[in-house]
Amino acid sequence: MLVATPGLRPLFAWALLGRLHQAATPVALSFLVAGWTGSYAVAGAVGAGLTIGLGIAGPLRGRAADRAPAARLLVATALSYGLGIGVLGLLPSVLPGAYWPLAVVVAVLVGLAMPPVAQIARAAWPRLTSGQALQRVFTLEASWQELLYVVGPTIAAFTVAFFSPRSATWLCGVLAVAGALGFAVAVRRAGVDTPLPRAAGGGHLLRDGPLLSGLTVSMALVAAIVSVDLVLIAWARDGGRPALAGVLAGVWSGAALLGGLVVARWTGPPRFPLRILLTALGLAALAPAFHQSSPWLVAAVLAVGGVVIAPTIAANNSLIASLAPAGRQAEAFGWMSTAQTLGSAVALPVAGWLLDHVGAWAATALAALIALLAAGLALRVRR
Asked: How far apart are CA 74 and CA 183, in angstroms?
């Protein structure tokens, strides 16, 4: 299917490669800053700075991509991002740990310079294909993205182990620059570099009721999913088996990849509320599994419930694409990134409090409730 559409196959491949660094960078930075300052709290602050920059940049970079040639924007942001990552990797070598607030500032600037590969790619799919083929592209993208969440941290961890945290950080910068530049070339060759005409009378996107509802659903959905990621780490660590977190996360991502590849072959429009409901049921089943403290049971539930994750994310991306006004898709996906960042920022501290004071089952139950809320909100979205 990807081969049949001219320009789509290399664009799809580079859209994934251009995002590989995103999953690896937080791991590399955590090791770098923790080794520099001796504090995981400071490492978290630097990671938060990067996230804040990403949240602010999402709609700004998307709006820029809707108004100017995408390849030019990708080159400019890639070079700026690579420079910022290079500075972050160098700071521990030239400054004592007491200067860590400077790293937070640089991290915010790095986040602001993130190449908008995801926004541009998701805005390009409807320009290259449509109908059921478009649904398949969104599903395949969400499926293979799950693999990035396994490969990226693994690359960073191995580089830290065999070389150094600074090498891992700089490698992430190299991956970001190379991926964005390769994607820029693919964008031009696919003929989607020039912006589309904008819809007449366009105001602020957050005043668009249906789109705002879709963004709210996206925020709740991602908040539920990232809460479970935190639960897996905490549950494995508290059980004295921290390496188990990586295994369980791999099971979940593998199930999502498999589910996405299977669903990509289906025909018919996606039933988004039903997919979110199935996601919520899968998360709800995890709560008693964590309470039983059986790794095999948790892995089995993750394997079964995980198959709907990628199809659900794909349906969410397709919904945002259909709700965005003409010529403003990249900006809409930028706002989606910001909404998802906000959802994570709100949900993770609450999930952490439940982990500290109640248990893994309670944090997972909260994630299931958030997903159930997202399903209810999705029923009210009108395309």
From this structure: 8
d(CA 379, CA 103): 43
Residues 6+ away with beta carbon under 8 Å from 45: 100, 104
CB atoms within 10 A of CB 41: 9
pLDDT digits (tens, 9 = 90+) for 261-278: 888 777 667 788 899 999
User: Which residue type does 247 have?
Assistant: V
Give dist(CA 24, CA 37) in Å, integer. 20
285-301 burial, b at 16+ Cβ within 10 Å, e below that, comes to bbbebbeeeebebbbeb
- Residue 149, token pair as written in the block: 């969440």
- In one letter, which amino acid is 365? A
C-alpha span between 38 and 96 (Å, rounded): 11
Region 186-207 average pLDDT = 77
In whole angstroms, what is the distance from residue 284 CA to residue 281 CA?
A: 5
Q: How many residues does the chain have?
A: 383
State the distance between the two ends of the chain, measured CA to CA, in whole angstroms. 26
Distance CA 276, CA 281 (A): 9
pTM of the model: 0.82
